[in-house]
Amino acid sequence: MLVEDTIANKILILDDDKLVTKTLTLLLNAQTKYEVFAFNSPIEALAFVKENEIDLIISDFLMPEMDGITFLSEVKKAKPSITTILLTGYADKENAIKAINEVGLYKYIEKPWDNDELLINIKNGLERSKLVETVKMQKEIERLRNDFIATLTHDLRTPLLAAIQTLEFFLDGTLGEISERQSKFLDTMLHSNQDMLGLVNALLEVYRYEAGNYILNKENFDFSDLVTRCAQEVTSLLEKKNITLKLDIPKEIKIYGDKQEIRRVVANFLGNSIIHTGFNGKVIVKIEESENKTIFSVQDNGNGIPKEDAAKLFNRFSQGTSKKRSTGTGLGLYLSRQIIEAHEGEIGLESEINKGSKFYFKLKKVN
């Protein structure tokens, strides 16, 4: 059976018995297009591996200079992604199984081997190597992309802040009088720059959480007071749409967490509900306690979200659903999830089409 491969994979064979290395080399040369390197000394083989790219190694177990498990352990230290196969006699099977657990061995094959079985295991092992390298490459690309986003957004903050400050100087008269028409244009520009700054800040926060670089400044604080203050801050938004806001909040509920980060989630829930609730609608904000949880929820009577789309809503850059709820960036709920999970809490959604949605999070109750 000729094993085809478009790329000349490199195979290293190690056995102190020259007859074994010669037999395996002849087999692979006759049945495959692999490039084969044969060694009878593990020390020489290890030096070769450190200096060259090898896709797969077939090693004997019992050798005078160094046993196979020690050799493969050193290989893994130098080149972790190489796929390794151990040749062993029946009496060495227990050690081979040990090598699978300790060294990350791909396979062990008993002597005398079956040629067809050996070739199949080599082919599968090479496919595994390719998969490992592909995953590593994808992770590196993702890391570089995230680093680029973080650097770019950080560098964008300075000119945006400068532009916002300049526009505010024009609008408040610091730089002289302007006409009403000029004021309207400048006000539009100001809001656009503020929205852009909000996006940049959100991207930086998302990166901070994904990279594990966040530091939570936890304290015991009055959660009821925080929610009440957040509700007061959206009064103008409620009045624009004549939305009724009902607060179902106990007088004083304490929670333990980062006050500013939790406030960000509460504000996000409130803002989303108001945006997606129609004129003359209703929003209910509630805090309740179970035996070991403090539960916060915001319920609206908006359009609701299909069940098949609800799970996607907390993903990064989710724009909502197939029945689109939002024209935003899709970062708000994703960041909220990151914050709540960093507090070892639970975040979720209950929704029904044409009846509304209920967003909630649960945190450990303060005793």
Q: How would you describe what is shown here?
A:
This protein is an alpha/beta fold. It has eleven helices and twelve strands. The protein has a five-stranded parallel sheet, sandwiched between helices. Strands 7-9-10-12-11 form a five-stranded mixed sheet. It has a two-stranded antiparallel sheet with strand order 6-8. Helix 7 (223-233) packs across helix 9 (259-275). The chain is elongated and about 90 Å long. The termini are far apart. Residues 321-327 have low confidence and may be disordered.
Give the key terms.
single chain, 367 residues, alpha/beta, 5-stranded parallel sheet, 5-stranded mixed sheet, 11 helices, 20% strand, elongated
Run of helices and strands: EHEHEHEHEHHEHHEEHEEHHEE
Instruction: List the uncertain runs.
Output: 321-327
Helix and strand content put the structural class at: alpha/beta
Bulk shape: elongated
DSSP E strands, number: 12
Strand content: 15-25%
> What is the share of helical residues?
40-55%
**Order of strands side by side in the largest beta sheet?**
2-1-3-4-5
- Number of helices, counting only DSSP H or I runs of 4 residues or more: 11
Radius of gyration: 31 Å
Average pLDDT over all residues: 85
Q: How far apart are the first and last residues' alpha carbons, in Å?
A: 70 Å
Q: How many strands, which pairing sense, and closed or not: the largest β-sheet?
A: 5 strands, parallel
